[in-house]
Structures are given as structure tokens and as C-alpha cells.
Amino acid sequence: MKRFVLFVLAAAAAPAALAPEESRLASVISADLLRAHVSFLASDALEGRDTPSRGLDAAAEYLASQFRRLGLKPGAGQSYFQTASMDSVQQPMEGFTLELKWNGGSYSADPSRAAVMGGEALELNGAPAVRVVWQSPDDPLPPRESVAGKAVLLSAPARSAAYTEKRRQLLALEPAVLITAGPTFRARAMLEERRTFQPRRVPVVMVSDSGFAQALESLNGAATVNLRIPPPQRQPVDLKNVVAVLEGSDPKLKDQVILLTAHYDHVGVREGGEGDRILNGANDNASGTATVLALAEAFARHPARPRRTLVFMLYFGEEKGLIGSRYYARNPLFPLHKTAANLNFEQMGRTDDNSGSRAGKLTASGFDYTTLGELLTLAGKDTGVEAFKDGSNSDSFFSRSDNQALADLGIPAITVSVAWTFPDYHRPGDEWEKLDYENMERAVRTCAIAVWRAANADTAPQWISSNPRTARYVQAHSQLHGAR
Ligand SMILES: [Zn+2]
Fold first, then answer.
1. Distance (Å) from CA 414 to ligand 1 centroid
2. pLDDT tens-digit profile of 401-448?
């Protein structure tokens, strides 16, 4: 059955309407090249490339050595590494106590049902508590003087983007601590950018316990808080975005940069349990990383350079919350207002999408947010690959990868993918043998041609402003450009 499908696709791919230089570009990208990159990056030797880990560092060295082999210019001064100095912060819960007291009752938290995020060590004894209740995201913020320096008990519905933003505003009013109901998890290390000056931050205590929820509801009148948060433990770590440049050929357009990106980290090794515990992250995202390396190779080997400059960049820390791409957005190596577009790549190898086979297909998040979607569609017509908008996934996955960091700044940025969802997602079974490298070859060739055309076109890629979902990005784009 599979052989038959491949035969049909090969036949469909044959009548190519590619220009000779496009065929030449695409021909460098092969299934073997992609397999070679993915099989190393997703090998057990790299132990799932957690951020931070030795496996991640080894992967970064591999990426840099590939750029070196291709003779590409380093993107961070003399180096391929943009090094982010961060602290890995762990909050110990031994010695944590939380007690609420009110007229006629009290509540004492079980430390195993509590988690602390952010902030520093804190000790409160009989501190007056202020209860803030939100029933809708439109409820007003309390006045600063009523909460500043106080212990705030927040009662609000389950978290959503609107409430997250509102909570951020509440924290900006500088309470001593924010205590709220919420999911707790095994205390993980958090990564924070290391700075010479650390402003005092407000710790957020989350308690997942019905007793706490009841206490929060039954409180009325005065209440006090006894709280002890032990000091967090900090460990310095250096993390690396890996960056190389291919300078454009056009005297004017070469100032403009197209970013080709993917995250090279994954989630490491599962603690405890039977059998294979290494989460290899072959499809997520050794495949996107291999895509960027293969694009780098195709463009580096091509006799003609494209008019715009191409930047190849692999991010750390996506799985920990887009940390590498957000770091880059705060510390750009190329002027943001000259950054014409970002094509980010994720999950390019597996075709066994949960909703059916993705052989011969290609999709992207924000497929109809920017003109890049149309470029992919047209390139796919010439390579026999169908580029399409994936129902609701193309919209809902927009914020779930590194394109978001640049989109927030107004740069047209999408994530290209073959399958958004697949059976071994974030499991030890995401191994390199399961990728369809022949299909991946066609998909990545299609991307190469779309990038070639984007880099050579007279006009840069644009947000599609008629799509209401792009409103905030269109606004950010005009801010980015209007401010000059
Ligand atoms: Zn990923």
C-alpha cells in the first residue's frame, strides 16, 4: 500500500515548473542528508537535548560544525553561538509554610500541594490579607494602595490568556505575595535571564487543594497570612542559540534579513519508570533543525546568492516556554526593522498525523496570516506537494512555537510543519527511524523554493491585514517601522 502511494506521489512530482536555478537549489536536499542530521541529533547519546544539558551542548557544537563545513559566516560576531547567560532557579519546598487565619477559622497548606513561582525568599507573620475576586476578565483591578505590600488572595476562574494578562497587571501593583488556586507540579527548575540588576519580584503561590478553595470562598472580613518561602537555589547556566549568515547579493535588499529557524532542544530524560526513558525528540524537533541545516546547505552550495540576506538560527529552550527565541527577540543580532520574515520549522518528518496521512502535504501555522502561505502553495504546485491550511490547527498552533516571539514584534513569522499532532508526541517513541525521509525531502525542497522566491522578490513578505486575526501583528509591524 505504501509503495503504491509513493509511486503516485513521485508521478505527481515529475512535471515541475521550476526555474533551472530552483531545481539546482532543491537538488542539494536529499533524504539521506536529512536522515544523517536527524539520526545524530535524536540519538540516545544526546539524551533528549534538555535545556540545559550536556546533550544540548553537544547538539549546539554539531550545528556549529555543520555551518563551519558549509563556509557560512558566524552570526554572532566571530562566533556561531549567541550565548545567553541564565540562572537555573529551583524553589525548594522543604520549610515552606502557609497559614490563613480569619475570624472563626483557619487553613494550613500541605507543602506538597503548593508551588511557588518567581520571587525571592519571604517571611510574613500575621500579615493582613486582601481578597481580590474576579468573575470576568473585565472586572476592575484594585487600587494600588489597597494591595501594595499586602498578601493578596486571588479568586479567579481557570487560567486563560485574558486572566494571565490581568494577573500580570495585578503583580505590577507590587503586592508582597500573590496566593491563588492553581495546578501544582513537581517543582521544576525555571530559567531566568541573569542580570546585574534584579528588580524585586512578587512570588506567586499556587495551591491545588479543595480546602484552600473553600477557605478562599468562605473568607469575609479581615484575615491574616503566615507564610514562609525558603530561598530559591540559583545555578548559572550558559545557553546557546546557534546562528549563521549568508549575505544577500543585492546592494539594497541585502540589508533585509529572512530568518530560517527551528528549536534544537527537547525535553530530556524521563525520571523513573520502566524501559526507554529518553525522549529523543526526532520529529520534535530534530526534524526542523535538520530542515534548517539542509536549507543552509542548499543555499551555501548554490552558485548564485539570493538578493536578501538569509540567517539560519537554531534556538534552545523552546520546550521550556520559547526561551531561546524570546531571548533572541530581546537581544537581536540583526536589526528587527530590517528583518523581513521568519520561517520557523517544526515536525517536518512524520506523516502519520493523528487526523490521517500527511504524505505529499505541507502546512503552516498562521497559514493565511501572511503572504508566506501563498508562497508555499505556489512552490508546492511546482514540486507536487500540497500546501494547505489545516482546519483550526493552523490558527491554534500559531502561539505554540518560536515564530510567536518574532510575530509579537510585528515580523511576518510562521511555523511550517508536516504534521502538528502525531502518536509519539513528547514520548520516548519519537525516534529517528520513524520519520519518512523521502517525503521530508519533497517537503523541504518545497520550502527551499518558497524561501528562494521570498528572498528574491521585489517586495518583502507581508501580514494579510484583511484577516482579523492579524490585527495585533499588523499594529506591531507599523510600530516597528513607524518609529523610524
Ligand atoms: Zn517542538
1. 13
2. 999 999 999 999 999 999 999 999 999 999 999 999 999 999 999 999
Which domains are assigned to the chain?
A: 15-87+236-482 (3.40.630.10), 95-234 (3.50.30.30)
Residue 313 CA to residue 257 CA, distance in Å, equals 12
Measured in Å, residue 451 CA sits from the centre of ligand 1 at 21
Q: How far is the CA of 263 from the centre of ligand 1 (A)?
A: 7
398 CA to centre of ligand 1 in angstroms: 12
CA of 35 to the centre of ligand 1 (A): 18
How many angstroms does the Cα of residue 364 sit away from the middle of ligand 1?
Answer: 13
Residue 346's pLDDT band (boundaries 50, 70, 90)? very high
Summarize pLDDT for 145-182 with one digit per residue, the tens: 999 999 999 988 766 777 888 888 999 999 999 999 87
Q: How far is the CA of 262 from the centre of ligand 1 (A)?
A: 8
Confidence of residue 454 (pLDDT cuts 50, 70, 90): very high
Per-residue model confidence as pLDDT tens digits over 85-133: 999 888 889 999 999 999 888 999 999 899 888 778 999 999 999 999 8
- Whose cell is 484583511? That residue is 466
CA of 413 to the centre of ligand 1 (A): 16
Give me the chain's average pLDDT, please: 92
Residue 5, pLDDT > 80, answer no
Rounded to the nearest whole angstrom, what is the distance from the C-alpha of residue 268 to the centroid of ligand 1?
13
Q: CA 282 to CA 48: how far, in whole Å?
A: 9
